[in-house]
């Protein structure tokens, strides 16, 4: 049982991001269809949770899955760098979409279909 827990601790930041991805896919299916600004905030919350998990694991040397996953400060450093970059990209893309008032892909596709129908004789 302790091997399983050690394995889960070793992949905890990746596990948090995976669960966030599943939550985002589930939330994308639910209404409201036209407005999806909340998905960026959910993604950002998942990235922040993964960063907090990474910081809490700092200083631990964990080896799991028979040595296939090794969690040391070197790996945690790169988790932090990639996590901060991902958070920054999410923040910048949310700001960009708000400034350009870009419609979602579903509304773009439906408006393109409607304009094609209007052109038909």
Which structural class do you get from the secondary structure elements? mainly alpha
Mean pLDDT: 82
Binned, the helix content reads over 70%
Strand fraction? under 5%
Overall 3D geometry? elongated
Give me the count of strands. Answer: 2
Main sheet properties: 2 strands, antiparallel
Q: Secondary-structure element sequence?
A: HHHEEHH
Taken together, the total number of domains comes to 1
Radius of gyration: 20 Å
Question: Terminal Cα separation, in Å?
Answer: 70 Å
Q: Which runs of at least 5 residues are low in confidence (pLDDT < 50)? A: none
Strand order of the largest sheet: 1-2
Please tally the helical runs, counting DSSP H or I stretches of 4 or more residues.
5
Summarize the structure.
With 121 residues, this protein is mainly alpha-helical.
Entry keywords:
121 residues; mainly alpha; 5 helices; 74% helix; 5% strand
Topology diagram in text:
Layout: H1 2-10, H2 12-29, H3 37-56, E1 62-64, E2 69-71, H4 73-100, H5 105-119
Antiparallel strand pairs: 1-2
Helix pairs in contact: 2-3, 3-4
Characterization of this structure:
β1 (62-64) and β2 form a beta hairpin. This protein has a two-stranded antiparallel sheet with strand order 1-2. The model has no long low-confidence stretch (mean pLDDT 82). Helix content is 74%, strand content 5%. The protein has one domain (2-119). The protein has five helices and two strands. The protein has helices at 2-10, 12-29, 37-56, 73-100, 105-119, and strands at 62-64, 69-71. It is mainly alpha-helical and 121 residues long.
């Amino acid at each position: 049982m302790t091997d399983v827990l050690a394995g889960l601790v070793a992949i905890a930041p990746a596990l948090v991001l995976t669960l966030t991805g599943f939550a985002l896919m589930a939330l994308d299916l639910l209404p409201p269809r036209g407005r999806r600004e909340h998905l960026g905030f959910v993604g950002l919350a998942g990235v922040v949770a993964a960063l907090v998990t990474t910081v809490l694991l700092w200083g631990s040397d964990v080896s799991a899955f028979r040595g296939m996953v090794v969690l040391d400060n070197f790996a945690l450093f790169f988790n932090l760098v990639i996590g901060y970059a991902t958070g920054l990209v999410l923040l910048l893309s949310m700001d960009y979409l708000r400034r350009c008032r870009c419609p979602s892909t579903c509304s773009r596709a439906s408006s393109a279909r409607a304009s094609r129908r209007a052109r038909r004789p």
